[in-house]
Amino acid sequence: MAGSNKINGNCPSKMKVYEDIESKVTVEFTKTHVGHGIDLGQMKITEEKEDIVRKLENKIPVEAILDDIRNSVNQKLERIPLIRQQDIKEEYNINSDSILDANDVVSITKWVEGLKNREDSPIVLFKDQKIFDEDLYPGMNASLKDMLKFYGNDTICLDFTRGMNAYMFDLATLLVLDDERE
Questions:
Q1: Nearest CA-CA partner of 167 in 80, 118, 113, 108
Q2: pTM higher than 0.85, yes or no?
Q3: At what angle do helices 85-92 and 62-71 cross, to 10 degrees?
Q4: InterPro entries attached here (predicted)?
Q5: Count of beta carbons in the 10 Å neighbourhood of residue 92
Q6: Pairing relation of β-strands 25-30 and 170-176?
Q7: Which residues pair with 28 in a beta bridge?
Q8: What residues contact residue 64 under an 8 Å CB cut-off, 6+ apart?
Q9: Strands 170-176, 14-19: parallel, antiparallel or unpaired by DSSP?
Q10: Where are the alpha helices (DSSP H) in 58-167?
């Protein structure tokens, strides 16, 4: 586990970057380090941040990101393979509890099961992908049925999204316009 960057003093090492009106960039760099060693575990993570951000935006679990980074260690030891889960959580201010499993199929199943147990559940019907020998017959609870009767006399939209990722999930959505035509 890496310790603190605090050295109870001031290290003169720094980099100042200036950009003038004509977009000319000037850099002042002081290389000298004083009061501490150069520990890769303490260096700021500056490379490959965009890749981490992209993965987080795509809901890839933090543990899977860390595994990818650790598996990418090459001959030249860099800071990125030494990244910790805490580094990612602190840098991007995230709570990885929203990703329930590294496997999308398992994660979605857990998410849906959690929603189904709520009193105000938006889930009417869910069929696990591992179940092949039964047909799917959609249904709805009483309040959804009442809403469909009340609002569904004018415009109804039924939308199917089929196989948009490697797991081939299908999603059927029934939409109606409310009294404000929204």
A1: 108
A2: no
A3: 120
A4: RegFact_GeneExpr_CellDeath
A5: 13
A6: unpaired
A7: 16
A8: 55, 102
A9: unpaired
A10: 62-71, 85-92, 104-116, 142-151
